[in-house]
Each structure stands twice: as structure tokens, then as C-alpha cells.
Specification:
This protein has about 325 residues and is α/β, with parallel strands linked by helices. The chain folds into two domains: about 210 residues, HUPs (Rossmann fold), CATH 3.40.50.620; about 80 residues, Tyrosyl-Transfer RNA Synthetase, CATH 1.10.240. It is built from eleven helices and six strands. A four-stranded mixed beta sheet has the order 1-2-3-4. A two-stranded parallel sheet has the order 5-6. The longest helix is centred in the last third of the chain and has 29 residues. The mean pLDDT is about 95. Bound molecules: adenosine monophosphate. The site of adenosine monophosphate has 15 residues, from α1.
Length: about 325
């Protein structure tokens, strides 16, 4: 998530179904902060850096567009990155600023693609697209968690190099480290983050019906310590139980008086089902009105073009185009 003092920018990649982790860690805070100067987008172009199915991407994008509205972001400027042409336009200009050496050092590329012939070129270049995503909106400050630090540092380097070589076009965003927020862990592998790309058993998806939520939580990993005081947070020794307690509190519940794993799981199930129910109800209404959802995004994309076209124009002119 990228935020500025006056303007905030958050992009979510439609690479899977949104999870309870996304809700507690990102969507909830985003909805609380939503206003017209909150630019919340689907980074649908970033969903194509690894092999993908067009029909699945289309379906997930529509689902995510609808879910962002269903989780209360109607006040924000909502958009699809692919519908705001300045993102790819500036990415190319920044590719003419970036160096192969610095892209080859990017962690994602090193871990997922380097040395493999079939790796998509876009996996190599997407940090440049991400730099464009950021620089187009001219944020002053970009708070980042550890996993995004390298990307934001690249955006700063490219902005500085560009400004020095061609003239002051970009605001060089300040990088502010944020403490890791609420992190929901996988129910089956509680030392891993719950993720939209992980196995379905360990992730609670926002559109999971109550019986599916119940079944997943019933099968969540706890531990064999079932004596008195077993229900207590201890991230190192009891990661599964700690995660269930975090989810319970994150969903507005309380562990007061809960002394067995069975009772804990029932309390967590009730809290999660209650949290998801209004979102799912709103989602069902919105899913019946796809033209309304599309119109909201088209309006947002129009606003994004007004913000980003002048930045792209200034960059292109500075480079001699
Ligand atoms: P991702 O799904 O990894 O693309 O992340 C999208 C946003 O959701 C980012 O702001 C993440 O920090 C947040 N997020 C993703 N998974 C979790 C999780 N398990 N717990 C908390 N926040 C998460």
C-alpha cells in the first residue's frame, strides 16, 4: 500500500481471490481512509507477469472491482491500471532510464524467473511499471513494508536519475518504513502468510459461504497442548492458536472465557461469518448491477487520466519526444 499525506495510492493485483488477510491488513484500513484523493486500483497488468488464463483474469478482475465497492470504498477514486494508459506509457520512458543490472538484482525476478528461458520479459520489467504507478501520482511520501522496500527504492532511483538527466519532472517520494500491521497467517501452515495464491484450505476467501468458513476453521492447525491455559498467544510456540486469536480480535470478537480449542474455533467462526456477512450481502447486490460497477470505475479512470496524462506529457517532452 502506498500512501501520501494528501493523496494515497493502493494497488491490488487480481492474481487470486481476496482473503480475510487482505481485508484485515489492507481493505479495512483503505476503506476507513477512502476519499476522492485515495487512488485505489487493480494492478491487472501486474497479474500477467507469470503464465495466466485470460478468462480467469477477467473473472477475478470483475470480482475484485465489485469487492472493493462492497467493502466500502465507494468514496475513493477506483480504477483499473490497464485503463489508464499513462501507466504503460511512463513505464516505457522509465525503461529508457533503468539499467539491466538493477533490474537483474530485483528479488522477485531472482527468485521466480532468472535463468529460466520461458520467464516473461514482464517479470523482469514490472518493477519499472511499478515505479511508473507510483511516480505518476506524485506522492510525497511512500510508506512501505519490508517486502516492497526494494521496489520503492528503485522508483526513487529512477526519479532521481531522470530528473538529473532531463530536468525536474518527478517528485522523489520519501520512503517511510511502516511497522507490519495485522498479519493473518495461513490456517494450515500458520507460519506462512494467508495468501490469495496459496492453497484454498488455509485461506479464508471473502466470498466463502458460512459453511465453508466453518469447515476451514474447524480444520485449522492448533497444537497438542490442550491443558489449562492452552488458549493463549505465543507466536513462536503456538503459531496456529495465536493466529486464531488474532483473527478473532481482528473480526471484533473476544477470547474472554474461551478455554478450549473447540470453543475458540466456534468463536472465531462466528466472528468471521459476522464480518463477512454484510460484505457478501452488498457484493450480491452489486453483482446484479455490473453496469453500475463498471461505470464507477470508468469515472475513476477518467479522474486518473486527468492526474497522470500531464505527468506523462512532461516526462515525454523532457526526453525529447
Ligand atoms: P497481496 O495479496 O499480497 O497482493 O497484498 C495486497 C495487500 O493485502 C497488501 O497491502 C498486503 O499487505 C495485504 N495482505 C495480504 N495478505 C495479508 C495477510 N495474510 N495479512 C495481512 N495483510 C495481508
Amino acid at each position: 500500500m502506498l500512501t501520501t499525506r494528501t493523496r494515497s495510492l493502493s494497488l491490488l493485483t487480481p492474481s487470486g481471490h481476496l482473503t480475510l488477510g487482505n481485508l484485515l491488513g489492507a481493505l479495512g484500513p483503505m476503506a476507513d481512509a477512502a476519499g476522492p484523493d485515495s487512488y485505489y486500483g487493480l494492478s491487472d497488468l501486474h497479474a500477467m507477469t507469470t503464465p495466466h488464463q485470460p478468462a480467469a483474469l477477467r473473472e477475478r478482475s470483475v470480482e475484485m472491482m465489485t469487492l472493493l465497492l462492497a467493502t466500502g470504498m465507494g468514496e475513493a477514486t477506483l480504477f483499473r491500471q490497464s485503463r489508464v494508459p499513462a501507466h504503460t506509457g511512463l513505464a516505457y520512458l522509465l525503461e529508457c532510464t533503468a539499467r539491466t543490472g538493477e533490474l537483474a538484482r530485483m528479488i522477485q525476478y531472482k527468485e521466480k524467473g532468472r535463468g529460466v528461458d520461458s520467464t516473461r520479459v514482464s517479470l523482469y520489467t514490472y518493477p519499472v511499471l511499478m515505479a511508473a504507478d507510483i511516480l505518476l501520482y506524485r506522492p510525497d511520501v511512500v510508506p512501505v513494508g519490508d517486502d516492497q522496500r526494494q521496489h520503492v527504492e528503485l522508483a526513487r532511483d529512477l526519479a532521481q536519475r531522470f530528473n538529473t538527466r532531463y530536468g525536474e519532472v518527478f517528485v522523489v517520494p520519501e520512503l517511510v518504513t511502516v511497522a507490519a500491521g495485522a498479519r493473518v497467517m495461513d490456517l494450515v501452515h500458520p507460519t506462512r502468510k494467508m495468501s490469495k495464491s496459496a492453497g484454498a484450505a488455509g485461506s479464508i476467501y471473502l466470498l466463502d459461504p458460512p459453511d465453508v468458513v466453518r469447515r476451514k476453521i474447524a480444520r485449522a492447525v492448533t497444537d497438542s497442548d490442550t491443558g489449562p491455559g492452552a488458549v493463549r498467544p505465543d507466536r513462536a510456540a503456538k503459531p496456529g492458536v495465536t493466529n486464531l486469536l488474532d483473527v478473532l480480535v481482528g473480526c471484533g470478537g473476544s477470547a474472554e472465557g474461551v478455554s478450549t480449542y473447540g470453543a475458540l474455533k466456534r468463536a472465531v467462526t462466528d466472528a468471521v461469518v459476522d464480518t463477512l456477512a454484510p460484505i457478501q450481502a452488498r457484493y450480491a447486490e452489486l453483482a446484479d448491477e455490473p453496469a453500475y460497477v463498471t461505470a464507477v470505475y470508468e469515472r475513476g479512470e477518467q479522474r486518473c487520466r486527468q492526474v497522470t496524462d500531464p505527468v506523462l506529457g512532461a516526462a515525454a517532452a523532457a526526453m525529447g519526444l
